[in-house]
Amino acid sequence: MIGTRVSHYNVVRSLGAGGMGIVYEAEDLHLGRRVALKFLPPALSHDPESLERFRREARAASALNHPNICTVYAIEQHEREHFIVMELLEGQTLAQLLSVQGFEVLPLLDAAIQIADALESAHAKGIVHRDIKPANIFVGLRGQVKVLDFGLAKVEQALRQTGAALGGPAETMARGDLTMPGTAMGTVAYMSPEQARGQLTDARTDLFSLGTVLYQMSTGVLPFQGDTSAVVFEAILNRDPRAAAKVNAQLPAAFERVLDKALEKDRELRYQSATELKTDLIRIRRDLDSGRRRAAPASDTRGGGGARPAEKSVAVLYFENLSGVKEDEYFRDGITEDIITELSKIKGLNTFSRPTVLAYRDKAVTPAQIGQELGAAYVLAGSLRRAGNRLRITAQLVNTHTDFPLWSERYDREMKDVFEVQDEIARKIAEALRITLTPQEQAALATKPTENLEAYDQYLRGKSYARRMTRQDLEFALQMFEGAVTLDPEFALAHAAIANVCAQQHYNYGRDPIWMARAMAASETAVALNPYQPEVQVAQAWILYAAGRYDEAVRSTRQAIQQKRDCEGAYYLLGRALFAAGRYQEVAQIADRAVEASGEDYNIYVPVMNALGALGKKDALRNVRNRRVLTLEAHLKQVPEDARARIQLAIDYAQSDRLDDAVREANLAITLRPNEATVLYNAACAFSTMGRPVEAMDALRKAWEAGFRDPDWARRDPDLAALHGQPEFERLYPEQNPQNPA
User: What is the rounded CA–CA span in Å between residue 632 and residue 77?
Assistant: First the structure.
């Protein structure tokens, strides 16, 4: 079918085939998007039961709207072809992943929580999947899990009552099942005991199957094995699996208890709901995270034994700036962050991310304190002084358990040698920790962002201003980035930074097409120089976002995060794109990871708080707001002139009924940046929250005049809900699609 047209779909390529369908990638010519088409095999197209099962899959999945369930758009027929139109996924099935790799504990828990969340949603709608297995679980490039194939789903009474509305035959929907008691349905190795006996099934059946999948993910083997189906049936019904911890000693004891309860043969003693199972998994994930932060390492690399993950872990503290010039701090920050990036290229070393160590910048802390609070085995600390073209860097690697320096060095070099110093520090740390670098790692460490140190200096200076995101700061940052590419036309990171800034100028300040043209030109150059750099992918995503192509921006930012979890600005843009697309629940799901990966970047809170507000999650919103207040107050002590931070703090004060403080911060922010669109927009949010609609509308009109003209964002922003319906609001930010307000 490749190259043919079916209805209004152009079939592009084959994605795979199974017993109940052949799947192709296709282009939807009406909506201009890529989709997956699942066709019923010709041999089954005239079989009533197969055709009904095929329709059942579409009806069951389309009744569910959940980020961890593959979205079904439609079920269609073209001539004699029956097919389902589905969301196009990028990645692999869990079955494919299990065939080539095992799962570490944390990724295992993340995937398990997502699967349980999907089942919780399905069960709440009265849908039991009945065929949970690795082949029906898809893992995307960014680690997001999708449950597939509801072809064996059992539809309970809650959904049967709306069977006619879903287009199902009345007699089939009344039965809620295509099979009768006494018939075993599903894949043998993943069946529950009640399925193996051909008994009636319910939601607890899916939980047993999920337990089987989790056992396999955590051990690499199935809990119930045999050379024939009969032997496997007998094991499921009568035998207990080998203790998972005996197969994988790294498993937490609490996770083994989860497996035991999920694989309980008596379903009255099994987990009774997906919610209960998910809660236990979340608790284990939380306890592991807090344990990693609290636990000091049990030994160093010379002593042998101890906690394996901590043996070769290092926290790089921000180097002390000895130049005595505050303006040099951008250079100190850039050097430190580049050393973190260099060390992150070494697979045998666990390097704590930039946001994790940001909290310790310019604070007097001891290696032992870092070891206790972060669980780091080693700390790299140092200082930096530059004078003219000369640079002095001192670095020391300290064992946090013994407070003994494992390696130290002082570098007195010319500025042009700074990249060689970073490279040498990374190599010396690997050598001190007895890590053998692969040829690929050696080549990666030798790669420089640019050969021109002056270009590098201007790039770092520009980054420090671009983070503030106001028009004036973006204009200065753009000057720095353009200077960098003039000095080195092959500096991919600087070209990507230009694309970022120009796309933000286009989005926030008037939608001038010249900005978009400049952004696209810079992005194309960056892609040509280094298409796989995460920062380059974020630049492409900003262009997509500014053009209103939110779903594509989401995919691009998630690919960047997959490569570099703390890629600067990636989570902020991901949150904005998801919010603008109305995907609030997905923003809420990434909130903790996004805040953790973004460090002191207070911008990350904007889409998170807006999404929680739109979802009506008041308690979660209150907790996040309290965290942002602390972040903003600490930041403004360091950068009191940051108007954007002040206006966001004004919103938080308004939400907390600190009205005098809110008015003070809002007026001060407007005084600092009277013509700044984003400041004026957020001032409107603050005044609206305080119940001052006249002042709010005045600020919002000025924001529109200054260039902020995004109706998608303004209409979804819960802080502006009180202004909806006002004639001026409706004129400035009209509803884009009245027929489909969602």
Answer: 56
Neighbours of 584 (CB within 10 A): 21
* Closest to 611 measured CA to CA, from 106, 31, 67: 67
End-to-end CA distance of the chain: 35
Tell me how far apart the alpha carbons of residues 230 and 407 are, in angstroms, rounded to a whole number: 61
Phi, psi of 105, deg, nearest 5: -60, -45
Could you please report the per-residue DSSP string of 624-666?
A: HHHHHHHHHHHHHHH-TT-HHHHHHHHHHHHHTT-HHHHHHHH
On whether residue 293 sits in a domain, the answer given is no
368: which 2 tokens? 């032992």
The type of residue at 703 is A
State residue 154's pLDDT score: 60
Angle CA 500–713–691, to nearest 5: 125
29 and 106 part of one domain: no
Amino acid in position 249 = A
**Residue 541 in domain:** yes
User: Would you say residue 614 has pLDDT above 60?
Assistant: yes
CA dihedral angle for residue 10, residue 16, residue 21, residue 23, rounded to 10 degrees: -20
Residues 558 and 646 in one domain: no
Determine, yes or no, domain membership for 26: yes
Each residue's pLDDT tens digit, 140-161 = 876 789 998 775 556 554 334 4
Asked whether residue 570 falls in the same domain as residue 600, the answer is no
CA atoms within 13 A on the CB side of 676: 27
Do 38 and 106 lie in one domain? The reply is: no
Sign of torsion over alpha carbons 403, 404, 406, 410 = positive
